[in-house]
Design goal:
184 residues, alpha+beta, TATA-Binding Protein, 2 domains, ten-stranded antiparallel sheet, 4 helices
Length: 184
Amino acid sequence: MVKKVEIKIENVVANARIADSLDLEYIESKLEDAMFTKKKFPGLVYRTKDPKSAFLIFRSGKVVCTGSKTEEGVRKVIDMLAAALRGIGIEVEEHPEFKVQNIVASANLGKELNLGAIVIGLKLEGMEYEPEVFPGLVYRIEKPKSAILIFSSGRLVITGGKTMGDCERSVQVLLDKLTELGLI
C-alpha cells in the first residue's frame, strides 16, 4: 500500500493577451534577452533570469509563459514582462490577465512498479506503452483530463491538469486503479 504521495509542481504554463498587436523586431532590438528568428519560429522568445522563466511572444499580442512553479510566479513574471515592454514604449496593461493551460508535476510512489503487469491489468485502457521507444508508460485519464507518465522506478510525471487539485485527483485515480488490481 502506498501512503500519501507528495506531488511537486515542476512547471506552470500560462497564456495571456498583453496587447492588440506587437512589433517583434522592435522588441528584439530593445530587450537584451529577446530573440526572434522569424524563419524558424513565428514568435519571439524572451527569457527572464530571476525568477527564471521564458515567454513566447506573438505579433497578435498573445504570450505563453513557461518555467514558473506557481501561479504567483506566473503573475510576477508576466508583470515583469509588462513592465519591460512599457519601459521600451509599448502600451500594455499593468497586470495582464492570464490563464493556466497546463501544470507539469512529479511524484514518487517510493516503490518499483511492474509496467508490464500494469498494462495487462488495465487492459491498455487509456494507455501507451512501447518500451523499445520510451521507458515509461503513458496513462491518459479522462476526468480530470490529464496524462501520467509512469516509470518502473515508481516515479510519475503528471501533465495536463490546470490546477494542483487536478494533479492530485489524477494521481488518486491511478492509485485507486493500481490498488484495485493489487499492483501496489
